[in-house]
Amino acid sequence: MAHVISDECVMCGACEATCPVSAISAGDTKYQVDPDVCIDCGACEEGCPTGAIAAE
């Protein structure tokens, strides 16, 4: 079960920096999590200052 990033994302990049497996990349309007790479560790969720990331 991968994490997902909501529209609350402000494109700060904190989540990308905290992901240990590089599953997060910048999209057009928000960051995106690649569900095939995500290991569901929750590091991105903890590092998000806006609370835009949650388990799917």
Describe this structure in words.
By secondary structure, this protein is α+β, with helices and mostly antiparallel strands. It contains two helices and four strands. The strands form two sheets. Strands 1-4 form a two-stranded antiparallel ribbon. A two-stranded antiparallel ribbon has the order 2-3. Strand 2 (24-26) and strand 3 form a beta hairpin. The model has no long low-confidence stretch (mean pLDDT 96).
Helix content: 10-25%
H-E order? EHEEHE
Q: Please describe the biggest sheet, giving its number of strands, its sense, and whether it closes into a barrel.
A: 2 strands, antiparallel
Q: How many DSSP helices?
A: 2
- Identify the strand order in the major beta sheet: 1-4
Report the sheet-strand fraction.
15-25%
* Low-confidence segments: none
How many distinct beta strands? 4
Radius of gyration: 9 Å
Q: Taking all residues together, what is the mean pLDDT?
A: 96
